[in-house]
Amino acid sequence: MLLCNMKVSKMPPSPCVMGIINVTPDSFYEASRVQEQSVLRERVRKILDEGGAIVDVGAYSTRPGAQEVSAEEEMERLRWALPIVVEEAKKWHDESRGEGPRPLISVDTFRASVAETCVTELGADIINDISGGMLDDAMLDVVARTGALYILMHSRGTPQNMQQQTTYEDGVVEEVIRFFKEQLDKLFERFEKFEEFERFERLGNVILDPGFGFAKTLEQNYALLKGLDRIREALPDYPLLVGVSRKSMIYKLLDTDASHALNGTTVLNTYALLHGASIIRVHDVKEAAEAIKICGILA
To answer: Are 15 and 270 in contact (CB under 8 A)?
Structure first.
């Protein structure tokens, strides 16, 4: 397959905000769930109006203990949602007279077949894989074959059992770094099948996500956050995505719930930005964009 036939998207500006849309009935934060077309269109517009550069669409809840969803059902949800998201993002960009980079569309899936369809048929630019290629052997081939931007996240196990896999002999930060290096090596092996890709594309289409909340205890999540500088030092060529928005590492520590975790989210996003995060994945875009603006002055 020739490079000119592949979908090669440019990296988003750094730092930037990724806004979350869940077309699921059971995502952990109820306000992020979208089931109606009019609500979906409004949500896309709100993300972009408030400063989001990426819209991330998920059709399979990956919260700890979430129920299994078949590939067919996940794909059915995305076939409904993604064309609407792409259409609204294009309208928004056209209305802004094309000023600035166009919004990027991300699909949150660990299934290779779903990811490939979303990239080649439905307009997605980014594959956001919570398993970093571990839950579907074909995923890394899809990334190499399509040229899509790829978010490689650290996790263990499945959403159903990952919280039983939180033992890290060398510490969570070193484990995450080792995992990234191993999976990047595997990905580069796949790229060698497609000779049209030069080193820039190989290095320039991968974003690393340490996977806050995935196979980590509360204490490990904070150790990982404090280790962002170490991850950047070990893997300086790759942008870091931090996704802590309204997660249990915040609301359990503060003895509250996800609906009251915005302030804690902003605190952690600010810390992450000051320690090198390039993308922050959030439910609340306006507050995240304000954090980026303020951190830009402090940096």
So the answer is: no
User: Which superfamily, per CATH, for 3-298?
Assistant: Dihydropteroate synthase-like (3.20.20.20)
| Average pLDDT per block of 10 residues along the chain, 299 residues long | 46 93 71 77 96 95 71 94 96 82 95 97 97 95 92 87 86 97 91 59 80 95 98 96 97 95 98 97 98 92
Preceding peptide of 25 cis, ω within 30°: no
170 burial level (CB within 10 Å; 0-12, 13-18, 19+): exposed
Instruction: Decide if 290 contacts 50 (C-beta within 8 A).
Output: no
Beta-strand (E) ranges in 216-278? 241-242
**Quick check: 110 and 140 in contact, CB under 8 A?**
no
Neighbouring CB atoms inside 10 A of 3's CB total 13
C-alpha 116/C-alpha 155 separation (Å) is: 21
| Residue 10 and residue 285 in contact, taking contact as beta carbons nearer than 8 Å | no
Neighbouring residues of 274: CB distance < 8 A, sequence distance ≥ 6: 295, 298, 299
Residues serving a catalytic function are: 247, 281
- Does the predicted model carry a pTM greater than 0.70? yes
* Distance (Å, whole) CA 191 – CA 136: 17
